[in-house]
Amino acid sequence: MQYLAATVSRIGDRKTNQDRIAIFNKEDTVLLLLGDGLGGRPGGEFAAQTLLDITRKIFDQQTIPIKRPMAFLQKVLETAHKTIVEGGTKQNPPINPGSTAVLCLIQQGHAWWNHVGDSRLYLFRAGQMVERTQDHSVVENMLAGGQLDSEDFSGHPLRNVVTRCLGMTKNPPAITLSQKTPLKAGDIMLLCSDGFWEPLGEKSMGMKLFDGRLQDALDDMAKQAENIKAPQSDNVSAIAMQIMSLTLRTHSVAAKKKAPHSNISKPGNHARKG
């Protein structure tokens, strides 16, 4: 498999960057990761970094190609959740950290992904969105239930309240997994935090990604998202990967890490971000 990859992570108007991004590859298998630490209580950055560390450890242990992709993805997030919770209790004083997560495994011409929270995965084909994860958030539930119009989303006071995340509760969250999805040459996978996707329209994102150099497109969109939300911009992070060929093999992969992000927790099963 031959591909191009690009990453971006900007701090926005926050004091720290609690986002984490990574691209792991072994032979012709690639794993993309994005986590957006929940702020408002200590530990958002710890939670997102723990997600990255656990993912790297488990991926490094795998035989390639991974025989059970969905089970692998599930194991990564469940292990990360447990480690985040246990790590929080060992702090002095104890903390209750949390993070969103989205993972995408690509091998043998197919993709599998899972997620929890409101960080998103998009699959764009010829500039058009063909797949998008559904947020685990209050406003996404309101949209699905017909209680909210899409035009009212960005200004809604509950837009940053997530209903599921890694950490924060003892029991692991319900994790949404995709089906095995065939890829085509030219497809672009985009993983991004809400600080990236919320200010930008899906149509404009798709057009921009296919217009020129991939890294330039990602950088320009991150700056645009940051400027639109200034002076209250969240951390802005994204990974883009374009499939150039499903048969050729390359070892040229871009970047590993991502920048920070801030959030506010809310009592109960919801956590407010940003």
Total number of beta strands: 15
Helix content: 25-40%
In the CATH classification, which architecture applies?
Answer: 4-Layer Sandwich
Radius of gyration (Å):
17 Å
Largest sheet: 6 strands, antiparallel
Question: Could you give me the name of the CATH homologous superfamily?
Answer: PPM-type phosphatase domain
In the CATH scheme, the class would be Alpha Beta
User: How many helices?
Assistant: 6
Structurally, the number of domains stands at: 1
Q: Would you list the SSEs in sequence order as H and E?
A: EEEHHEEEEEHEEEEEHHHEE
Query: What class, by secondary structure content?
Result: alpha+beta
Give start-end ranges of low-pLDDT stretches: 250-270
CATH fold-level topology? Phosphatase 2c, domain 1
Mean pLDDT: 88
Distance from N terminus to C terminus (CA atoms, Å) equals 38 Å
Q: What is the general shape?
A: globular
β-strand percent reads: 25-35%
Summarize the structure.
27% of the residues lie in helices and 28% in strands.
Task: Describe the model.
By secondary structure, the chain is an alpha+beta fold. The chain has one domain: PPM-type phosphatase domain (Phosphatase 2c, domain 1, 4-Layer Sandwich). The strands form four sheets. Strands 2, 3, 5, 6, 11 and 12 form a six-stranded antiparallel beta sheet that branches. Strands 1-14-13-7-8 form a five-stranded antiparallel beta sheet. It is globular, with a radius of gyration of 17 Å. The relative contact order is 0.26.
